[in-house]
Structure formats: C-alpha cells, structure tokens
Amino acid sequence: MAVKVLAFVAKSNTGKTTLLEKVIAELKRRGYKVGVIKHDAHRFDIDHPGKDSYRLTAAGADTMVICSQEKLAVVKRHNAAPPLEELIPTYFPDMDIVLTEGFKMSPIPKIEVHRQERSSTLLCRGEQNDPNLVAIASDTELDVDVPVLDLNDPKGVADFVETTFLT
Question: Would you say 134 and 121 are in contact if contact means Cβ atoms under 8 Å apart?
C-alpha cells in the first residue's frame, strides 16, 4: 500500500503549523502513524556550532547521522531539495500518512489554510486554480468548489483527513 500524502498550504503567518500540530495529535490519538515534512524556503540548520555533529559536518561529511534511543537525525548535503517522490519512500515507508507543511507547487492533494484577517484571497483558487485542492480550512464561510472545514475545529479537520485519505 502506498503511503498517503497531504499538503497543508497557506500564506505565511496564517496558522499552518498550529493547525498541523493539533491534527497530528488527533490522528496519533486515533492510532495512525504520521510523518511530517516541513518545506523551508530559507536555509536552516538543525545542528549548532560547537556540537560534535556540527563539527563533523563542517569538516566535510556529505552525510552525517546522529542517533539515540529515541531519535535519529540525518544531515545530508545536496545541491537541490530532493523531490517528495524521493523523500516519501526513503524516510516514510512505514507511515499511514505523511502531512507536509508547504509544497504549494507540488502535484499532491492539498488543504489550504485560510484566515480572513490575514488575506481575503486564496492561494489555490482565484488567479490560480489548483486541481489538487481537496479542502479549505477557514475561519470564514467561502463560496468554493471544495469542502470548507472549520479552521478552529482540528478534530473536524482530522475527521476529513481520516475519511478522505485513511479509510
């Protein structure tokens, strides 16, 4: 069975991470194995100067893994961000679903997070009509061709994810 993938997309500071935190917790409570990929358009570092793992990467290691009894992290240098089609089978084959934050240009199903005070326009409807949009989680009513979920009801959003992707 192929791993299901669903992107949560929005303009910055709309509340993607906050909604995702709550949806993940609810799906975990229901017994699902949930993976997450966060797209970051900026440079980021999970390592910190002075730490051994940082020093090993700074010395030139192309791939560096740090692991403990509870966690594993991989630092792998590359020239371009790997595509989701490569990340999913490599890192998430044992998940029921992989939720992504971002990847708004990818051809995967999407829930757009919309907050009226942040913007009156949508990313996936309007100037662009993304055929991969499956729902909008909004704090206001919208006249659109996909289901509108209550942004302030993460259990309801999790219900939609479960019935649409996991059953």
Answer: no
